[in-house]
From TrEMBL:
Domain Photolyase/cryptochrome alpha/beta intervals: 90-227
Keywords, ordered alphabetically: Chromophore, FAD, Flavoprotein, Lyase
Keyword Flavoprotein in record: yes
Signal peptide: none
Site entry: Electron transfer via tryptophanyl radical: W417, W470, W493
Name of the featured protein: DNA photolyase phr1
SUPFAM superfamilies the record matches: Cryptochrome/photolyase FAD-binding domain (SSF48173), Cryptochrome/photolyase, N-terminal domain (SSF52425)
Cofactor: (6R)-5,10-methylene-5,6,7,8-tetrahydrofolate; FAD
GO biological process, one term: entrainment of circadian clock by photoperiod
Lineage summary: Eukaryota, Fungi, Dikarya, Ascomycota, Pezizomycotina
Family to which this protein belongs: Belongs to the DNA photolyase class-1 family.
Length: 593
């Protein structure tokens, strides 16, 4: 059982006070790290400034800089009196982002209510932004899923006489301007949207709140993507939690004390039939194609459509099936990738075709008790896993520099990483010579999805066996995953590379062979995704060249290992110790599992 840790904000030595490191040396190191980040594409200078310094990270931790979420909250509070004086215009607008559903949608529900009270129609919009996709590394499969989902959403809204306006804006900086222009064109005085918690989006919404008010428009942002809003949970000392277990206990307690958080948002009302005539051009318009920088071949589109049918109806069907068939055994079976024992709802949660609270509420209602932490272990385990989404978004808001290519434990930025292109390519393509790693990578490249246990295995392998900068892996995942969610992806990589919140200790290094034997004992997952090893019998499938199946593996073209785990493990331990300024001090042994 892991050692319990205090639930406090991280306390770190100032970079200028580290042993044997002068302030000038620290600044030079920050500069060198920034150059490396740019050289290897970790920082995209087309959209972002150089890598944030450790000193600036420390200023966030010391509350010396206003966090983006605090900026938005302050802006909302200051503008509230003026916004409340604005009368309803000729329509009310809801701006869809990552909430592509009509059911249990907080902002959409409030927009519908405002429109109904004002006796005006509701108009919905979605902006396709190729530059945002590029800046955020949104995968082509994810864009394809969103566009297919918009087709479903448009049809659902049309049944309620509600138009869905979808357009492509090439320059991301023009999106707020375009929204204001459409509000003016439609005579809208109120626009609603659900909050996104990344830095860019929080800052944009704060600016839009003021820009809209200057035009006599009430821009209202609400919490929806989380069950408990960021900042609502504090430790006993008044700090934000950086460890999941105590955070989760407090989260459970808070939800029990505020059960309204799990209530379903009111359903939306239909527009009068006259809206069909007023907005005829929008009803007649079609959903645009994917932008060139995120397009798929026709074969790829068919493949992803087969794996991931779009829309909230599919999400509801998958949730219902999971609750009826799998959830009772979820806790016992979820770590075994060959068993198809998980909900496969991550793409729906990340794109918003399903609200997390909807899934939690449904799981609770399927339980024998109403408490979220009682009854069926499978159900409580599933709710705990869903709560991680909230946790990582809370982290993103309180420590916003994790959204700026900096690790949560920013002193770990001093670790010397490798940037071996041959090794990175082998990892990306699933040709490392470690079957469980290769199977997982090939699953992601084929499906746009990877089992969570495998995400931890391949993450540990990249950072601690290949010693490659974990941020390259984080980025590769985002460019391939159909369920890519920045907060969860960043949190997962922080855990695997031991640089994030509540991480595995840096001296705990996964042995990929032992992980393979433990979680894919019969090799079913490996044989499914690594066809070269389908003829390898028994335990040899976990390391064919070491267990007498090398000739068969080589004959089918399966590669030999690109590194030796035992050797790389020792290198990793030394790199981490040196990066932390611990020299060769005894760290109390290690865990090799």
């Amino acid at each position: 059982m892991p050692v319990k840790r205090k639930a406090t904000s991280p306390v770190r030595p100032s970079p200028s006070k580290r042993p044997h490191t002068s302030n000038g040396e620290a600044q030079r190191y920050d500069y060198e790290q920034s150059r490396i980040a740019e050289k290897y594409g970790i920082i995209n200078r087309d959209y972002y400034p150089p890598e944030i310094s450790n000193e600036r990270c420390e200023q966030y931790n010391n509350n010396e800089i206003l966090r983006p979420v605090e900026l938005l909250e302050t802006t909302i509070k200051k503008t509230k009196p003026e916004r409340e004086e604005i009368n309803v215009g000729e329509c009310v607008v809801h701006w869809f982002k990552r909430d592509l559903r009509t059911r249990d949608n907080t902002a959409l529900s409030r927009a519908s209510k405002k429109a109904e009270e004002g006796g005006v129609p509701l108009v919905c919009m979605f902006i396709v932004s190729p530059q945002d996709y590029e800046a955020h590394l949104t995968s082509a499969p994810r864009v394809d899923f969103e566009l297919r989902t918009l087709e479903v959403l448009k049809a659902d809204l049309e049944e309620l006489n509600i138009p869905l306006y979808v357009t492509t804006i090439e320059n991301r900086k023009d999106v707020p301007k375009h929204i204001l222009e459409k509000c003016a064109e439609w005579g809208a005085k109120h626009i609603y949207c659900n909050i996104e918690y990344e830095v860019d989006e929080l800052r944009r919404e704060a600016k839009l709140t003021k820009a809209c008010l200057a035009k006599g428009i009430d821009f209202t942002t609400v919490h929806d993507d989380v069950v408990v809003p960021p900042g609502a949970l504090k430790s006993g000392s008044g700090n934000q939690y950086s460890v999941y277990s105590p955070w989760f206990r407090t989260w459970i307690k808070h939800v029990h004390e505020h059960p309204v958080l799990l209530n379903e948002a009111d359903p939306i009302s239909a527009n009068p039939l006259s809206a069909k005539e007023t907005f005829a051009a929008i009803f007649a318009s079609s959903i645009p194609s994917a932008p060139p920088n995120k397009s798929l071949t026709e074969a790829e589109r068919k493949r992803y459509a087969n794996y991931w049918p779009p829309g909230e109806h599919e999400a509801a069907l998958r949730l219902s099936r999971f609750l009826a068939e799998k959830i009772k055994k979820y806790k016992d079976l979820r770590n075994f990738p060959s068993l198809n024992s998980t909900s496969l709802l991550s793409v729906h949660l990340s794109s918003g075709t399903l609200a997390a609270r909807t899934a939690i509420r449904a799981a609770r209602d399927a339980n024998s008790v109403t408490r979220l932490d009682g009854g069926s272990p499978g159900i409580t385990g599933y709710i705990s896993e869903l709560a991680w989404r909230d946790f990582y978004k809370h982290v993103l808001c309180h420590w916003p520099y994790v959204c700026m290519s900096k690790p949560f434990k920013y002193e770990y930025a001093d670790i010397e990483w490798e940037y071996n292109p041959a090794h990175f390519t082998a990892w990306c393509e699933g040709k490392t010579g470690y079957p469980i790693v290769d199977a997982a990578m090939r699953q992601m490249n084929e499906m746009g999805y990877m089992h969570n246990r495998c995400r931890m295995i391949v993450g540990s392998f990249l950072a601690k066996d290949l010693l490659i900068d974990w941020r390259l892996g984080e980025q590769y995942f985002m460019t391939r995953l159909v369920d890519g969610d920045f907060a969860s992806n960043n949190g997962g990589w922080g855990f695997s590379a031991s640089v994030g919140v509540d991480p595995q200790p840096y001296f705990r290094i996964f042995n990929p062979v032992l992980q393979s034997e433990k979680f894919d004992a019969e090799g079913e997952y490996i044989r499914k995704w690594v066809p070269e090893l389908r003829g390898v019998g028994g335990k040899a499938v976990h390391e064919p060249y070491a267990r007498g199946a090398g000739k068969e593996a080589e004959g089918k073209g399966y590669p030999r290992r690109i590194v030796e785990h035992k050797v790389q493990r020792e290198k990793a331990l030394e790199r981490y110790k040196r990066g932390l300024g611990r020299g060769t001090a005894n760290v109390g042994g290690g865990v090799h599992n």
